[in-house]
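W.,

You were right to be curious about this one. When I first looked at the sequence I had no strong expectations either way, so I just let the prediction run and decided to look at it fresh. Below is the sequence, 314 residues in total, followed by the output.
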Amino acid sequence: MRALSCLDRAVDPERLVRTAHAAGLDAVVLNDDLVELEDVVALVRASGLRVVLNLPLLFDVDLLTRLPDSLAVTSAGRPAVAEWLRMACPRDDEFWQARLDKIRPAVESVRPDLALLDFARTFVLWEQVGPDAEPRAIEHGCWCARCRAAGDDATTVPADAVTARVIQASALVRRSAPGTPVGVKLVPWLATDYGGAREWACGQDLRALAPWVDVVVPMSFSSLIGRPTTYLATLHREIRETTGRALMPWLQAADPASPTALGVEQVSEMLDAVERDADLGYGVFHLDGVADRPDILALLASRAPQHRSPKETS
């Protein structure tokens, strides 16, 4: 599976399908709130593309606007809102029940080829944490009264709360659409990066998450996080060895934080690394970043299975 990511609820479905086909991809990733637009799912299916349903767990702008008390509290003592990101406390039951009430009908309606658990973590803007960042400078959370009472502080980890939500969401998917594989997105940090911040800042304990999912999906955005492409091989190897699960990396084909497009050579280098380690294909981030890039579309299309020689596909 090679899937084009599109999480914009205002998407033009014909543009989405046209771009996926131009890139030689065979699937698209749709956010769970897009299923309200039945024509999107119908058109995607009719075009022969598979559907990956993206299910944000602790991120929902609409819900958190209605339930502001459900927002996490960061290590800086403020609500967990930064730029586009706002995250719920992983222990807030009101928010969580509301999220399940949105996830369930989406899964039942779409019955996706893959259900992808997104934002299965606590608050942190990992995209803006540079390779030389000091651990103590990483704003994270939740540090609300409930989480402090549970024992989460700088010397322990919030991963138990995140893992519990992953377990519940995975069970819901399996009940609502039996046979649908479940994946979870992972922050692209090694276990040793920033003093183990993958657990204490993000709440992602890979060994605890692995039994509840079929696929692990690292956000393999080496350019975005200021790492060399060689970092990806180390990251992928550690994740595979730690989880024992199939790997489906996410390729960075655009930079959401920069008005300057990524060079095709840079994307090609990251694509090489992603393809080498992908067990079940990969995702491409994202529609708006590649739709108007003929060079990137041609690069992706050149890697489609039907364009490979027998030697390359053997």
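Here's what jumped out at me. The first helix runs from residue 13 to 22. And, maybe more interesting for your project: The first strand starts at residue 2 and ends at 6.

Coffee later to discuss?

I.
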